[in-house]
Amino acid sequence: MKKMVEIEIVTSALNEGKNLRFFIESILKQKGSSFTLKRVTIISDGSTDNTEEIVKSFKDSRINLILHKERAGKQKRINEFMNGKDLYETIVHFDTDIILEKDVLQKLADIFAIDGKVGLACGKPIPLTPNPGTLTEKIALLGMNIYSAAEDDCKIDVPSFRCNGRVYAISNKLANLFQTPSSVIEDDRFLYYTARVNNFDIKYCKEANIYYRLPSEFKDYIYQLVRYCTPTIKPHFNESLTKKYDINLRIPVLVLIFKSFFKKPLITSGFFISLTLSFIISRLSKANNVWRMSPSTKSLFD
Fold first, then answer.
1. pTM of the predicted structure, to 2 decimals
2. Which of 63, 89, 151, 296 could form a disulfide with 216 if both were Cys (CB 3.0 to 4.6 A apart)?
3. 86 backbone dihedrals φ, ψ, rounded to 5°
4. What structural domains and CATH numbers belong to the chain?
């Protein structure tokens, strides 16, 4: 018999006023028989827009706003939250520039309700760009489709790339162990390996879908790629562990790029150039876990 799972949600927001109302509404619409939504914590990390006004416009006692005047970065704010002493049973983290499909919390709660050994459950981000407009959006969508195809061919059970910072759920036991070092950019991979090292079960739920917007400006796209290409995780975990679960997708991605070139030469060339440029920049620049915003991803319904 499945138990009822108590869930709280946390997100760290910096000037997310363009999408924040849609984000909160998509949370409050969640319904299901295996969970109770106890609290929604929105951390304003130095926002200077109307974030506070939007949050306070919702007259729901479950919504909890934490205001910070100075920006410290998402990782520090989430670290502070996870250090809290009154966490509920299951904590679901979302980025704020997304919206939830109607049954996301139900899908994630079912995992924890059925298996008490689960510490981490990963959802599936989907780009909300069915008809991309700008050249950059077309390049970004092609890149996402190529990587998704390569990932879907992977035979390893829940490799590290399945843990995406846009959507994940963790038990409060794992939350108490989770503190991302300031030297780490890949906070989602650090969480993944923290779960592995501490012998928690990890599940991937491809039906727990959230939607986000791809960058429409080239500089935003390059910045996101640089962030994903910057390796900072290795010094913190055993190499044999990371080799087992960090599946190298380089060869399958290159094969898919080659095949795609004959169908969409311009867009495919743009993606290959972007990927190469981002890799070079990531090796030449200093890692910084306080991310620069990508403004063209912040409004899902323009």
1. 0.93
2. 296
3. -120, 40
4. 5-297 (3.90.550.10)
List C-alpha distances in Å: 170 to 32, 48, 100, 248, 263. 18, 30, 17, 26, 41
Residues 44-102 have pLDDT tens digits of: 999 999 999 999 999 999 999 999 999 999 999 999 999 877 899 999 999 999 999 99
Map tokens 């990890």 to a residue.
202
Encoding tokens for residue 219? 């500089």
Q: Distance (Å, rounded) from C-alpha 131 to C-alpha 121?
A: 30
- For residue 119 the two structure tokens come to 């510490």
pLDDT digits (tens, 9 = 90+) for 133-173: 899 999 999 999 999 999 888 888 899 999 999 999 999 99
CB-count exposure of residue 250 (10 Å: 0-12, 13-18, 19+): exposed
How much of the chain is in helix, strand and coil states, percent to nearest 5? 45, 20, 35
Other Cβ atoms less than 10 A from the Cβ of 69: the count is: 9
Q: Is 13 exposed, middle or buried (0-12, 13-18, 19+ CB in 10 A)?
A: buried
Strand ordering across the sheet containing 167-171: 63-68, 35-45, 5-13, 90-94, 167-171, 118-127, 201-212, 98-100
- Cα–chain-centroid distance for residue 121? 12
